[in-house]
Amino acid sequence: MRRMNIILIIITVTFSSVRSQTQNLSPRYILENDNDVVSVSSSPLLPQPLMIPLTLIHGAVSKGAVCLDGTLPGYHFHPGSGSGANSWLIQLEGGGWSNTIRSCVFRKTTRRGSSKYMEKQLPFTGILSNKAEQNPDFFNWNRVKVRYCDGASFSGDSQNEAAQLQFRGQKIWLAAMEELMSRGMKNANQALLSGCSAGGLASILHCDEFQSLFPKSTKVKCLSDAGFFLDATDVSGGHTLRNLFGGVVNLQEVQKNLPKSCLSHLDPTSCFFPQNLIDHVQTPLFLLNAAYDAWQFQESLAPHSADPHGSWNNCKSNHANCNSSQIQILQNFRNQMLNDIKGFSTTSQSGLFINSCFAHCQSERQDTWFADDSPLLNNLPIAVAIGNWFFDRQVVKAIDCAYPCDNTCHNLVFK
Ligand SMILES: *[C@@H]1O[C@H](CO)[C@@H](O)[C@H](O)[C@H]1NC(C)=O
């Protein structure tokens, strides 16, 4: 049996205490806390992963590049070696968004809004692993995880003095790139910008800017993992995610940094949705996404606010509990995703891996990135498909058949 369901045990006390402080953040916080996944399901089976210390960007304050609370931004860096010495992988960290003064003020008291609370070291697993048997193509590259502490996918530029909030995502992005260029990235002969979730959206938003840092001779591509957030209608007919994104864009003045080519025909909030961005990206881009993305299912399609009586709760916690009408709504969600990538999929440089799983962030975790039983499409694990695309070994436009045909998924199950 290839199938393996990851059981996520969520401690109710943690859940409700976070929820009481901010309704927007709690499920997201738990879903994106990879440490929970690792500690519950994987760590007894795996050797200790490589731990990489946090580096703060000391020159950042003079550039105005600070976290929500004014503290220094940071990153984790493991140098490349051998054939990877001049290759660079940048991963932009994810972790939801803050769309109101209140949720941003709360975020200042977390690692997502202040480097005071960031882990002093992080495990480098999956696409960040330094072992060839865990990460066949990128293991010996220079690998960097840039921490997320602005709440707007590294794209805002504003402030709120009354609430003592700095919205400097765009400046953090630039300061991080400047620092990494000075640490050797300027000599890169190949580079990949990646990121998951809010970081996967950031990798789409910054893809062409990343490419423009390098001379034409450098091979530059971008990977968005679980960053393809649909402008979806929720189960009560509302637009939960559009409302959230609208708040982020307006509060943090994201429109300053959205592509003019999109703003010329759509409103700024629409231009924060990948479906309206991907056709404007000139640099080769790979979309890795679960067709039934677990975060979007829980927070965009069937969020608590759209289902106050909780009739979706059982289905949300485990897809095996969904009835036929709920499955149909999930199939419609997948169909919308496939429809939104239609034009993109026909371009020669694009890459796709859209598997029919209930997952979120499949490149950071070892079990989904590259392992004996990791998810497959056309018989290829994610790590091999993305390597084949990056190195032009193969055209990769892998789209799964609809649920329940895939028995290689590592579905997230919430208890
Ligand atoms: C599926 O469950 C939902 C929510 O409980 C309910 O409204 C709907 O009628 C059910 N559909 C079927 C076909 O049982």
TrEMBL record:
It is found in: Secreted, Cell wall. GO terms for biological process: cell wall organization. GO terms for molecular function: hydrolase activity. Coiled coil: none annotated. It comes from the Eukaryota. Pfam families: PAE (PF03283). InterPro entries: PAE/NOTUM. Keywords: Cell wall, Cell wall biogenesis/degradation, Hydrolase, Secreted, Signal. Hydrolyzes acetyl esters in homogalacturonan regions of pectin. In type I primary cell wall, galacturonic acid residues of pectin can be acetylated at the O-2 and O-3 positions. Decreasing the degree of acetylation of pectin gels in vitro alters their physical properties. Residues 1-20 form the signal peptide. The keyword Hydrolase applies. The keyword Nuclease does not apply. This is Pectin acetylesterase. Its EC number is 3.1.1.-.
